[in-house]
């Protein structure tokens, strides 16, 4: 279990954080240097968040090679708990109902990504 948490979930959550930081820098640059309004930015960030969580669940399940939906779901839960803790500690704000629905969508995307990732062909040389 310790190897699972450190290896598989760490790989998935780490990739999610790296992709989120990279994509937020891209979105911040677009917002600064183009005429993009915040409504468009919100829609793009929603789609990007769902895609990135699905990709993180896919990578974690591909590395874990079993129970893809559970691996993706656990990856999403770890990510969401970290985000909620950051919000509570640094912004001194509790989670709203709208955020809970967004988090539910993220969990679903990570779980679906895990289902896809566990069924991807393994490239091991035999």
General description of the model:
The chain is an all-alpha fold. Helix content is 83%, strand content 0%. It has four helices and no strands. The protein has helices spanning 2-33, 38-64, 68-90, 97-118. Helix 2 crosses helix 3 and helix 3 (68-90) packs antiparallel against helix 4. The longest helix is centred in the first third of the chain and has 32 residues, at 2-33. The chain is globular, with a radius of gyration of 16 Å. It starts with a helix and ends in an 8-residue tail after the last helix.
Task: Put the structure in a nutshell.
This protein is mostly helical. Helix content is 83%, strand content 0%.
Keywords:
single chain, mainly alpha, globular
How many helices? 4
- What composes the largest sheet? none
SSE topology string: HHHH
What is the CA-CA span between the terminal residues?
27 Å
Work out the number of β strands: 0
**Structural class of the helix and strand makeup?**
mainly alpha
Shape: globular
Helix content: over 70%
The rounded Rg comes to 16 Å
Task: Compile the SSE list and pairings.
Layout: H1 2-33, H2 38-64, H3 68-90, H4 97-118
């Amino acid at each position: 279990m310790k190897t699972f948490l450190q290896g598989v979930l760490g790989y998935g959550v780490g990739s999610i954080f790296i992709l989120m930081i990279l994509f937020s820098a891209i979105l911040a640059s677009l917002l600064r240097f183009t005429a993009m309004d915040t409504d468009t930015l919100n829609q793009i960030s929603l789609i990007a968040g769902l895609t990135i969580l699905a990709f993180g669940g896919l990578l974690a399940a591909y590395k874990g090679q079993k129970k893809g939906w559970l691996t993706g779901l656990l990856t999403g839960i770890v990510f969401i708990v970290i985000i909620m803790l950051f919000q509570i500690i640094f912004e001194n704000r509790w989670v709203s109902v709208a955020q809970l629905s967004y988090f539910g969508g993220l969990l679903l995307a990570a779980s679906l990504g895990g289902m896809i990732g566990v069924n991807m062909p393994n490239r091991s040389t035999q």
